[in-house]
Write the structure tokens for this entry.
Amino acid sequence: MFRFKGELDGVTFLIQRKDSIQIETNKKAGTFTKLSVKWTSDCTYETRLIESNMPFPDSIQEMRKKVPLKVEIVKCASDYYVFRAKRDNDDYVMIDTLFVEK
């Protein structure tokens, strides 16, 4: 299990992975996102939306189902990893950290 805290909004998500499924939960808001995970190398993977109750417009939900988020792990440590994530149709690049939740 991992923990992610967004730098812009300070929202914390718990992230659980099992096989090729990732579930991101914001317990405070009661929201979740379920994603498929496809590893493309030892340090890269892609995610696509399966389902979510996050309040995004339908157009955003559909885009997240069709266009994968490509994630590259750029640094690893025993209790965290730093990643870079981007979609092919977007110029925005997210660089952040996932912490191992013990």
